[in-house]
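LOG
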Amino acid sequence: MANASVKEIVEKLGGLDNIAAAAHCATRLRVTTKDKTKVDFDGLKKLNGVMGVVDGATQTQIVIGADVADVYREFCDYTGVSEEEEVYDAKALKEDLKGKKGAGLTLFFETVARIFNPIVPALAGCGFLSAIIMVAMAFGASMQSETFATFVAISMAVFTFIPFLLASSTAKVFKMNEYVALTICAAMMASKWSGLIADGVNYYHFLGIPFRVVNYSSSVLPIVFAVIVASYIEKGLNKLVKGPLKIIIVPAFTILFGTMITFWTVGPITYAIGQALANGMNWLFEHGGPIAGLVYGGIYSSMVVLGIHHGMVPVLTQMIANQGFNFVSPTSGSANIGQAGAAFGVWLKTKNAQKKANAASACIAACVGITEPVIYGVTVPSGKPFFFAAIGGAVGGFIAGLLRLKAYAMGGPSFLNFGMFLGGENAVTNCLLVMVCFAIAFVVAAALTYFFWNPEEAE
């Protein structure tokens, strides 16, 4: 690490013997410790290069920033933990949360984060490629070009086959055989079903029981719940079946029972729920656009702090799959850029050289879509700037909702990722207006911070 060493981080986490497992997301090193009482949270926060620390339900989350992947590899080498083999014990988490306020929601969002965090880099990467495609199309690129058509196919891969990614990550969270989970996903996405849909067949039968034929390509919730159901089937069979045939019987009947239960019930129900969530979010922005934008833009940064913003990933993915756009990203982008504006205000106002440097780098990171460094490293520690950023996000979100602005690709909404807003009949206008909303959010947050924040309050 350029600043604090991995050795120093481990010491503050209670030493090598206290490290159980580790993983990472876009900006955070997520460490599961054996005994949380041994973690020196104040000491971690004071280390150079550590932008913030979040005490999660089962993890200590250390905000590193863009270098987190390098830090993670070094951390794994130093501690000896296996990369990506993170320990997640839902039963232990339930016991830990028992009797605590909001335990159910904490458990839900913790589980959602564990499922979606591993696939975020793939979503963000293909989202950025999709944004580039939007820019290219605005300048006349055509699918007649084999090169461009290939580029489009590559960029859409993660969205078309996202059930496979989710099958893998969900299997790890619920501790079932990953390859059995992937096989169930393959059965759900077999070409047989798309062929039937193309022929106008809506229902098919197994053992005389009808089930709705659904195209699960690009869907989110069906495979997650299919794997959850299959994980319990697998656990039950493992207890029931003994002897040498176990290695054959357990996976065979897990695949069979898991897939058929999904076809009969879980798949169609969760597919309908996913559609309803996406349609519901559309309805909110179509009928209450400015108010929806105001509220969502104002609270989005708080959702990031609480970690519940991950819950929006399946909804946004489903919205893009359903209609090719969403109304939400221009609003959440306004919240992100509001945080950048507050950091700029801190940079202008503070006399502390270290804080000035942190604010400058965090402002740049937020402008390109990475907000955790600015939230945990600048605005939250500074107090009022975090709320000024929320006001900026609310103002930008209000305008975005009023104008019904759209995003046409997944990704981190930011100035850098402007291509995701190019689409539809008025592609350039839509994109320019989104950038205007971002600029307004930035200016409002920066001005409020500069005029109404006293640096001495945060000293």
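LOG (cont.) second protein
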Amino acid sequence: MPENAKQPKVINKSGTLKMTDETAASRKSRDMGGRPFDRRNNRRRGGVKADVAPKEFDEVTINIDRVSRTVAGGRRMRFKALVAIGNHKNKIGVGVAKGNDVTSAVQKATAKAKKNMIEFAMDGETICHEVETKETGADVLMKPAAPGTGIIAGGVVRSIIGLTGIKNLISKSLGSTNKVNIAYAVVEGLRQQTPRKDWETTKAKGAAKPAVKKATTKKTTKKEEK
């Protein structure tokens, strides 16, 4: 059979002609405007590229609670989210918000955490000094640790410290187990960190001691007393 011979027409069950493999390979898909559409180019419609820039802050959803409110028609169920965000350096923020569903609650809490961002001082990869902070019933104690110690903490404290640049820390939760209060106590403890150069000491290095005058008492004799 010669090569130039035409291939027989293949008709589908519906009565239409079936496209050959060569014809299908040469055709291009077109959009509604008649413009060729390249499937290999993963772009949004309109030529706008997707945002592939890395996030500046990482966020962690620490806790989600289901809360209810009694109204005239019955109970109204909502969700409360506790979210922490940080840049794995010296910026951290915590936010709490409520919403009708989990997604909206997390979004609102993240927005609040960004507004409440703080910047704290660090001493290498640990905190500058020991600190104990209280928030309502929660009492959190944090101590600096030597390199290689790691983060000795649990629950909420570990989640928040993990978003910072702190690699060595010893902490203990002494009071209430309420996660929201513990989170606020941890953030307050980081806010109170003061660099070593700004510490107030009782004796300034190199300062001369002030002269102290001793009070002298005059001895009285028996004759003077008479």
